[in-house]
Amino acid sequence: MATIVCAMLTSLDGYIAGSSGDIDLPFPEEELHRHFTDEMRRTSIALCGRKMYESMRFWDSPEREIAADEVERDFARAWRETPKVVFSTTLQEVGPDARLVKGDVEAVARSLKADTDGEISVSGADLAGQLARAGLIDEYRLYMHPVVLGGGKPRSGLSLALKPLGTKRLAQGVTLLRYAPAAASSD
């Protein structure tokens, strides 16, 4: 059985995007980018909401293979090699190594969790909210950037009791905060 992990980059004041809707957080430099590449390589399946999937399609571009930066080429390979399930009612097709699902998010996630080993990542605030309400997320990883956006899209409107799993300092002043749902954790 897989562990479903929700990872989100966030500002210190709790926003995942700025007022314009753009992700106004600093782009990862080499060391932090390598961390995210390692996370992607550990991912058995990536569950993506439409908006996040469309943003990440940048990494499918053939130009990523000839990017000057090896760390970007490495992440692009990891992204393309990871199977993806994209939840959308508006998309008509998805790219390579991706499957489009228009149906019951909860049922599909439960089935994937039962039939998969390793980690399943969740990307996209709306999708994460649906899975959190269904009690399907096993771990939350919040990447707190030392930036205050002052407004924008919050992490979620969901109230959860969480148990700390650990904290780690990363490059660029980013702090990784790991949590599990309090009801699912054991002492």
From TrEMBL:
InterPro entries: DHFR-like_dom_sf, RibDG_C, Riboflavin_Biosynth_HTPR
Domain Bacterial bifunctional deaminase-reductase C-terminal residues, every copy: 3-174
Gene3D superfamilies, per database record: Dihydrofolate Reductase, subunit A (3.40.430.10)
Pfam family, one: RibD_C
PANTHER family assigned: 2,5-DIAMINO-6-RIBOSYLAMINO-4(3H)-PYRIMIDINONE 5'-PHOSPHATE REDUCTASE (PTHR38011:SF11), DIHYDROFOLATE REDUCTASE FAMILY PROTEIN (AFU_ORTHOLOGUE AFUA_8G06820) (PTHR38011)
Protein name as it appears in the record: Dihydrofolate reductase family protein
Organism encoding this protein: Mesorhizobium argentiipisi
